[in-house]
């Protein structure tokens, strides 16, 4: 199987469609991005990297960072964290508050905004936002084995200005005592992790431990146990694409996590970690061309977890 | 890997816990079942069958039949069927009507009751219930290569008496014109398919095509394309356990479909089809010991789709 | 105050607007009505009757009959009836099912469909629909002192054919054991009471007991106690116009009950009973010109219960 | 009719029940109040005042202030204010956020928290909170003709500390652009108006304009037009007691507004303004003994708006 040829083909096939979908406009900094971009990178468990298109261009990973924040929180709080956040698909939009009211301030899963805010609260653990953000960034450097990855402070600031819904979610949960730190501290940290800036190659590298029993095969760094890697993959598959998770599983068949910056991290367990990026989003907020690319890739490689 | 030893161990380990959970009591015939039973059967794609406990005892498969009905409907209506039913997890109980009101009578997926009723309406396709039930039963015989499988008419009748919620769901959708036949015809057919009676061995055989690219390796019968088999598996993983689907994916990591009769059909793509049965249900309506058995089985075999 | 002049003026002022709004089209028989009609009748507690426009034309009272059915049920079951139906505005559409799921099958008030179906179930009280419908019609004859009032069986039949939502509501509540008779019996009775056919004069007469301490001053017939009359008026004011009840109270300031046939019964306590009719409905399902007429009437007479 | 005798009797009858219900505990300062208190005051349109029990003890009026804030906002923005807040009963708890999500950030009415926050935003109108609070307090002094009425800053501060739900509501609506000023400014103002401290006599005086065609008969001060007074009364009747509004209309039959401090302002149009206070609340958050007192008062005076 010639992976380079496959992703070159995909990139070529998608080039006439560049610009499809809508760039997220509620975060002012993201609205400025040129929509006609597409990048893809694959890192395999045997240590090879393949890339095509704008795979070297950094973009705002946004909600994809929730996967790494969850990994960090599981390391700190262990399975007891599930008292404060659920593990079920939400059946509603990424920023819905309805479910919180009906379920006493316990978010449905760590990949919707409310859940990720609770996870951030856990990672804070009494520290200052600056320290928590530093710890998070060091963790990303460790995962990707790349100290140049940074947080885009303009994007973080841009979110803080307009993130009224997230402020509402956090205060609402604080009213249920499911947020323990002052809301400004939690959201300050949350907005910074969302503003993590990575390119496709870095992102594929950072996620590779999930494809390889919890250990990054490039560095030998052990991140989590094999069982925990499987469980994070399971959460990505059932909850990783908001109210489009079922659709993604149906079409692509890989655990994945999308961000409104247009990126998607997908895991082929035992085989590879894949990052795609294209800024235009579909109607449920996932990268439109990114989803198409992964559907074709899964079909051509036979990597779907649901069968050859 | 000695599969027989693994399932014998599991059966022995669970024997002190027989009777845990609650038998579904809203269907009178099911309430009469002895809860202290447990059976498991595995059929592998290379043609071997393993069984333990009460694997030869027939039970009411209930919602597991939704997998087969969906397969039948996809054969008739193709992908156009997705105009009338969604592919997303529901985020609510198996018999909720709230979502239908908010989403114009389109059920979220084919594995909640409302969705399965729409699927049944598609399979009816202008025929009489008697014919549709006959077609469905022949399809099961074909899948399992076993003509002795039957529908328990007492159970079907028992459901009809108390199924007020299902009558409500069907009429509600008919008000949105998403049910095309008279409600009595649709529900008559629906209650009969739910009353399908199979033992674990028969059920594992019937599901084997989903583990083997759409073809039953025991008979060579082709049921669906490899792609469609993957897609049905994806739906089972994201939606197969009602509002416990995320939990099942997290703990077990296999596509699966449960029924309130206490059965679960699980698929290890490329490897095997597994049927477990134990009548006591957990709080979201899935077999309690059946779920535990599958969690242990997946751990010991390394069959989780989310990684070794 | 010259009431005849007031209603003649209103009728003249509204004549250029005849036909505004939309005639209910989901009940086929109602969809056939000429929308360019308007009638009004007032009966005062001192025994005078005033009428204008099409006040002598019979129309389908539809949900206005819920007031009379409630009066009948209160006479049978007394205040204990409130265990099975609430007394709060619903905050949702007249045929919503969402609230029922969240509140265990107890409808919010007797004037939304679900609540009126429960009230009908109470009035049935073990009798056959034919008897209950007979009793209801005799009660109307007694209230209006007019034996010519009848039920339009074509309308009743027309509703039965398309009333899927009502069948859903009734079965849903039966699943919560809040409907005691077979659903067909309850709905058969329910659809017949909705199909009650009256003209404005008859309707104003029938409601007059509510304006006069529970006794019809024209006949001297005592219907309910003064306290019960006040309470029924209170329910009409808070819940009588579905999700437009607040608006009606704000603009008109009288207890009232509307029906999708285009009629409204309004009560000026201590003064008069008023019936208006015009088939075109506003966006929440209440007679558009009827509401306007009552707003003007209340302003000119000073009859608002909220102050001179 | 001897009003003094009536309220003396009511006060005596209720004395064995003092302490029933639960004092609001989510505002720390309110939780400290001695629950065994009861006061009542009536001011009639002909200028007499009657009082009994703890009618001279100041208490936190809380949501009752929403009536005065609405009056102020109507004076500034006129009927155009209804683009930003509805006029329908909510069918849910006083602090629910669910409805806001389903209805694009437009609160159902000005008497639930979300609605009152929007009203406060209108009153701010570009000014600083200090100025808006000053204007509000001067308005209260004018209404009650009493310059000694003040805001309890400890209560205001106490709310600010724990009002996470209100912060959530405000930010949520700001996300829909239905709050125009910074949330801290709006809530700072909002919490201060809630912390208004009055005794029953002052409160009855302040509300008297609503019983007298918009003009305070004691001072001759004109506050609003007769039509606007009726409309505010209508809103109080349909929406003044959260999800207990229907119940209050059914039992008492007067426009009223309750606060979690245990106060209720009730209006008998054309007759009197009544203030009651007793800190223990019923299950929907309205003064338990206060509601009972008003029910008895309405029965004995015949003041129900729904008939003699």
From TrEMBL, chains A, B, C, D:
This is Glutaminase. The keyword Repeat does not apply. One of its GO terms (biological process) is glutamate biosynthetic process. It comes from Martelella mediterranea. The keyword Lipid biosynthesis does not apply. The gene is glsA. Keywords: Acetylation, Hydrolase. Transmembrane segments: none annotated. InterPro entries: Beta-lactam/transpept-like (IPR012338), Glutaminase (IPR015868). Its EC number is 3.5.1.2. It catalyses: L-glutamine + H2O = L-glutamate + NH4(+). GO terms for molecular function: glutaminase activity. Substrate binds at residues 63, 113, 159, 166, 190, 242, 260.
